[in-house]
Amino acid sequence: MQNCIIMDWDDARIFLAVYRGGTLRAAAASLHVDQATVGRRLRALEQSLQARLFLHTPRGYVPTRAGELAMPAAEAMEHAADQLERLTQGTDASVSGTVRVTTSDTMGRGFLMRAIQQVRAAHPQLRVVLTTSRHLSNLTRREADIAVRNVRPDNPDLISRRLSRRELGVYASKRYLKACGEPRRGTAFEGHTVIIYQRAVFGARSETLCGEPVGNAQVALEVNSGLMMLEAAAQGIGIGELPTYLADATPGLERIWPECSEFYDVWLVMHGDLHRSARVRAVADAIVSVFEQTEDKPAVARARRS
Fold it and tell me: Which end of the chain is more exposed for a tag (fewer CB within 10 A), N or C?
């Protein structure tokens, strides 16, 4: 007969962190506690259950059969705890406290800073925790309350709103164009230097700039950040693909092939349980307002100065 594995939520948090992190250090970092506390709590949990949950190997902590059996129950507890927190926060009418927002660095610079400034002016008791990364945060686990991304989620627990349709163009610095000239369409940037996104992060997007292959170009730099792409192009390192709302406002950058564009949608995403929270709604409304104020107009080619 199998042992009945019972643990409270505090124990389950420790167990899940070790299971997912694979080491005490990783678990401690995710829980914001010290490593010794995690180790002590894990040993106490195993003693209370009279079961070994992990094997300590040179590669880290590997779950035993008992650990594998405990995992679904621990995740169910996590789901219930997250749901309780979301529901109680969803009824909070106070426009104060903390709201966690995640987005890319380019959208953070181009839009969210203005939204945060506006919502803080209206509600000074709000505190916004802004995370900029390519990682798609898990909103159901409260890694973030609001996400602004160019990917629409398919999770039925999440609600999304299309904020905008944005344009990408091909840009180079005036200095680069003066030294190297403008590339010709259909040559795969032959004779030119390009900046591309890292394939591990952006996949096939790293092989083209607005649909033009880069196979004949010299790749000078690979980046994993839109802001680094912007800075590299502005410094004259090479030709890059950039959002028009940022590149057009950057001194020294010129758009080449203005007829060559790609477009992407921007989505605001939050958990369905949180849309009733006053503080989350206040931040979401400010983000929507900023995007509405800065909706892309039809691109007008700027004449390149010689």
Answer: N
